Amino acid sequence: KMTQQMRDLQLAQARKPPGPSSPNAAKRLYRNLSGKFRVNYTSFDEGSLVGRGEKEKLRKSYLFQSNAALFEAVELQDLDRVQEMLKHYSPEELDLNTPNSEGLLPLDIAIMTNNAPIARALLQAGAKESPHFVSLESRSLHLSTLVREAEQRVNELMAQVVNEAPNADCSDKEKQLKAWEWRFRLYKRMKAGFEHARVPDAPSSVHLSVASSSSLQVTFWEPLSVNSAIVTKYKVEWSCSPTFSPLLGEAVIDKLKDLHFTIQGLVSGTAYHIRVSAYNMKGWGPPQASTPPFAIPSNWREYDGRAPRRRGQAEALDHLLGQVKTVHQHCICHEPCKNQPQSRKHSVSKSLKHLFHPGSKFLKTLKRGLYLTAIFYKDDNILVTHEDQIPVVEIDDTYSCLLMQDFLWLTKVSCMWDEILWLRQCVTVSQSSCSCILQTRFKMLLAISQMQGLLGIQDLGQVFFEPIKDKQGNILIVTLKEVKTNQTFESVRWVPICKLQTSRKSVSSPEEPTALDTLLISLQDKLAYHQRSSHALSPGLYLGYLKLCSAVDQIRVLVPEQLPNILCHAKIRSNPNISREEWEWLQKMASVEEPVPTEPEADRPQNPLFQELQVAIKELMTLVNIPLQEAKDFRLYSQEVLDFGDQVSFLLLLPPSDDVCTAPGQNNPYTPRSGFLTLPLQIFELGEEG
């Protein structure tokens, strides 16, 4: 009962200092408390003089203070302080959903005082309404009781203050009176807010899209008017009937960080109707039907029953590699290898302990030849030898012209660093053919094995897409690997990149720098490329621009510098799925050879995908510096949708057939602005696979 709750509150007040005498006093209180409970719990280590029991009591005291401070901040409508506490402390640390002695939660106070910013901040953090309010009547009765008992307490304290002679006890009573007067006003404001509020309007918009062959995605927006009470949850309902009778299912969404919901487990080919309604403390508002009014779960593959392109490919390749190993087992001579890598079970921290002893075969300077260097970096630091040198090993001192096919072969080898010893043994046996190509590749494997043995680590990272060449006849192949461990290593030094660049004495002129000098000068650019090439796209459907250019020994593909493992692209929408109906529309457009949709047409039906494509094409053409009128001759690749997992898919935009690949010497009238690269096609394929 509320009377008993208020008695408990009075007893609690008798045991602790009096409550705040005014809003300013309350503000000082919770600021002091919030400063006190901002402690470093790691300081309570095993060596502390405080016992474990005392530690737990101290921790609970801090948590209690943090909870009280949060209530005070909400009551005083201090948005900055509420956001600060929600940022630094978890809901558990704040006891976010534990009622106070009045049976209220912080969210209850925020919504009943109609403080929308604080209420939204609390909802984003996972705050709930009090479970005691099972009906409008129970909430109204609870508020009336709070107001009545607060008023009664104010009257009692006022009588005591008037009748008693001035003394210390009277001063305490005056403080209590001010605190209760302030709380009485708060409760009256909460009661008035509740009585004034009405149920919310329907959500302003509900968008329905096909997420897969068994699911639909519902995205909705807040009501235009919440009628003086913030919305705290939404309800999504679905049915096969436009009258929603019978109702097939419903879901209540009380996590409002993202206003969308995916309905799973639906039947492919069946039409479903969707509606969404909003809820506030006065109840559920009217539902809003979706646009379009119904949708059919499907996927573009159902158009012709096509299986996923990559289904079983990884397993098949693993099986094929196993077969090749089995066939070559009798050829392996198990020769002793001085530079045999350590077991892969060794951690990076252990394997790097014995890095770079004085007898190692890392090179300080380059002579005319082909070399391999491994860049290991962490933040702004780089791993160097005990002589402050980047680790470099020799591949071939007589090889002054690196063939592109050999380099591309090495990039493929980088996908199986663990198998270098086996590959080397196989190539050793195969040298009877005296092939120059095999000899060169065998030397590459030897250099890789040497680097792995000296470093004590097998994974050398990603091969940079372009070797470094100088006029002295040196060619430097670069691998890049980010070390994310925070451990320190014995006999190894992490050197800041800027310090390494400034301290190294160049042995070449600025006009003709050596490959090592060029590496140091461009090191930040290469590290940036390595980090960007591992970035992933956010989920969605994208429009990619496929533009190739050919050279004598390779084909290169245009990519953005900021995301070099993906084609130039523009996002079409957040839903990656193409439905069967959408794919049928694309096929019809391709069959009649319609131009790419760059401008809206008055007599064309308003297809959502059509509109989304128009926006994406304009954005993409601007990005690659092609006039929009030229896009009318472009084509959408209609053979398939390129799926990259379950979250990202691509439609391809192709130039006219004669311009897809620019030949050597062919003029390209529209060159992209800065911010693009052309990667060898094989390098791009490896990056895309990763």
UniProtKB/TrEMBL annotation:
Phylogenetic classification of the source organism: Eukaryota, Metazoa, Chordata, Craniata, Vertebrata
All copies of domain Fibronectin type-III, residue ranges: 202-299
Gene3D superfamilies per UniProt: Ankyrin repeat-containing domain (1.25.40.20), Immunoglobulins (2.60.40.10)
Xref: PROSITE patterns: FN3
InterPro entries (alphabetical): ANKFN1, Ankyrin_rpt-contain_sf, FN3_dom, FN3_sf, Ig-like_fold
GO biological process, one term: regulation of establishment of bipolar cell polarity
CDD domains: FN3
A Pfam short name: fn3
Descriptive protein name: ANKF1 protein
Annotated SMART domains: FN3 (SM00060)
Region (Disordered): 1-25
Coiled-coil intervals, chain numbering: none
Any GO CC annotation of this UniProt entry: spindle
Record gene name: Ankfn1
SUPFAM superfamilies to which the protein is assigned, alphabetical: Ankyrin repeat, Fibronectin type III
